[in-house]
Design brief:
Two copies of one chain form a homodimer. Chain A has helices at about 45, 145, 180, 195-200, 225-230, 280-285, 395-405; strands spanning about 1-5, 35-40, 80-85, 95, 115, 130-135, 140, 155-160, 185-195, 210-215, 220-225, 235-240, 245, 255, 270-275, 305-310, 325-330, 340-345, 350-355, 355, 365-375, 380-385, 425-430, 435. Chain A has about 450 residues and is mostly beta strands. In chain A, a hairpin with a 7-residue loop joins strand 18 and strand 19 (about 350-355). Strand 7 (about 140) of chain A pairs antiparallel with strand 1 of chain B, so a sheet runs across the interface.
Chain lengths: ~450, ~450
Amino acid sequence: MTIRKRRYAAPLEPVAGNGLLDRRALLGRGIMFAGAVSTGVGSSRTTAAADPLRDDPWSLETGAITPALQTPSRFEKDVVRILSNPNGEPRTSHARTPHHLLNGTITPNSLHFSINHSGIPDIDPDKHRLVIHGMVKQPLVFTVDSLARYPMVSRMAFVECAGNSAGMFSPQPLQASVQALHGLVSNAEWTGVPLSTLLEETGIDPKAIWMIAEGADSLALSRSLPVKKALDDAMVALYQNGERIMPGNGYPMRLVLPGWEGNMQVKFLRRLKLTDQPGMTYFETRTYSQILPNGKAYRFYFVNEVKSFITHPSFGQALKEPGYYEISGIAYSGSGRIAKVMVSADGGKSWAQAALQEPVQSKAFTRFRVPWRWDGQPAILQSRAWDEAGNVQPLRAQFVAERGEAAKVPSPLGFANQHYNSLTSWAIDSKGEIKHVYA
Amino acid sequence: MTIRKRRYAAPLEPVAGNGLLDRRALLGRGIMFAGAVSTGVGSSRTTAAADPLRDDPWSLETGAITPALQTPSRFEKDVVRILSNPNGEPRTSHARTPHHLLNGTITPNSLHFSINHSGIPDIDPDKHRLVIHGMVKQPLVFTVDSLARYPMVSRMAFVECAGNSAGMFSPQPLQASVQALHGLVSNAEWTGVPLSTLLEETGIDPKAIWMIAEGADSLALSRSLPVKKALDDAMVALYQNGERIMPGNGYPMRLVLPGWEGNMQVKFLRRLKLTDQPGMTYFETRTYSQILPNGKAYRFYFVNEVKSFITHPSFGQALKEPGYYEISGIAYSGSGRIAKVMVSADGGKSWAQAALQEPVQSKAFTRFRVPWRWDGQPAILQSRAWDEAGNVQPLRAQFVAERGEAAKVPSPLGFANQHYNSLTSWAIDSKGEIKHVYA
């Protein structure tokens, strides 16, 4: 096999600095690539006899037995979650999604991020109960089986920890993968019963404007939730990407609050108590109230704002040679659909609009893609997203001015600050190596 | 806890026989349910002190350690694929998706159906090659790494074996679950490179109208594919629901031909050879050419036609008591989007229109749902789907007249016939037990 002649002289002119091409080039018709090599056997007239393929060992023997549950290839053994507490010491356990090794928009259930503060409870679904009580007209108890008789809905939704991307508050850019930096967000199709349907069953005292959601984990993690969100798009979910929810994600049922911070989407949900005031629980007053540079705190700060990051190429990968690459990444917003993603290859001097994978769904991952021809010179890749509500990812200088870098009061969860939604920058040097930089 | 008073006097009148309700009732506002029980502690004025929840054992102890790859709860051990060849004897292995235990639209990768004729090859992705040659201008060799540099697309698509639902050709209705009857279809988000992009790289001899796709399994399964489909929506897929393709589904790369029968979507794809005629391969001439009652055969019969079946309730489940239930199921068409699904509870005498879960995507699963109030009397549930191309699922009498019941020539794969897309009927008796019937 011989290296194929490169065809750099593509008819498409760059639309932004450092070789960003028009997103319409993704549809083909004009762009030339450098990924393939010639078979070395010439044109069609001469290949009829020559066969460029050898038989590999796996083509010469019967393969493995089909298992009841299939798992990834042994060659994908590195595609796992990074664990912060692999030995289960008595503290919080984080498991981060390897976004740099995935593509598309769905996070497979095995790789959905999870955070548990007191381990993963082993819940018998036949014994688990959900109670809705407090300021309701008729308190009710639901089992998994009784919930399964109610009208259901399915929707794609991302779940993101408020502390995702906490490393981005570091004064110096951490040399870490997109998994380590941004792995506390994932995206799945959730199926369950709209909470509004259940509240219609119980009735609501007009004075009830909050409810306290409590989990069946041994810490009984609880958060206060406005009734208004419960009546909007909240769901008591039973299924995650088609199957029952993973144990680490809330089996047998969890609250799904599309677009709101993950810890409020209470897992192992066992109680919703309607009240006329918030509960001021441990997790909402101490853990998830971030301290600002001016000494005040965000309290009841629920929405995960518009955000994006590039997954390919990113830290830990390397470009082997100049030529065509696809830049792609993930964008999402707790306020609705992604409206636009712009990508820069020159550290923000110029921008090209990315293609968005259809269908673009509200409060869910949107994969964006931009064609790029790397000329072998240093480049800095960034993405910046807008949502349909008109929000835009803040530039880093603006973000740091408002929100500070390292937090003044480290949280007991071990992260420095919360709700990072500014840009991520990957610097590519002339060798094709990738570093994390602030730009 | 006391059984809650039933509120049968819902304001919504049925829209079809045996208690089918208007699909708009799924949005709430008026429908009453019977699934929940009272907490037994009275109204909101008295519940403040009483707590209806006891602490279960899992709420009293630290939970399990977070794993690198999470797996379902041990209480979901029955949610597995049914295997036709669990000991890996030298014959075809089928693994069927448990649709009656799933909900939503996505099939998790662990449960995606698979059929392999000579086991599952253990392919080293760094050594695997895809060759496109034959009647092309420039034959090319692609590695996994080189493919990953090309522009990608993601799309939801069902894959269905031509022999799915073969049991429905039985003269007597088989008493079997929706998994056993219809488990050879699944739905996933596939991400990869449009085949049209790769063919633009190689160029195509204008005389080439077919290509032969070959897998790297030890049988070198091969099928002939019109160039027209390759230039339409075919994809060389690398990812399945976000992660690399499962070994049983074609790792490290497979052809995805949205809407076409599964065996053509060649797994372990290693060769595309462009030709001016079809290959008349073993699998297209012997295995996948179904014999018709008139003695002729369907040859090059590619599209999986519009189809639907009810998954909840279905065989193997039981209704414990009269009252409200949701009827839901899956609809799909190889010709585009699902346009409409009608549901009957009286064996086809009257029909109600189902709600379709948005977004309805082309050549992908669409979940349909209908609210239903069961009065405890016998009922026969059926669904019937239409697609945007105007196709409709044929009624069973019409289908059997055209296509026969048991095939005259059993196929070597062990199924009686192919491309079943007529109705499935579940009969519910007064005890709530469910049987498979022809109606």
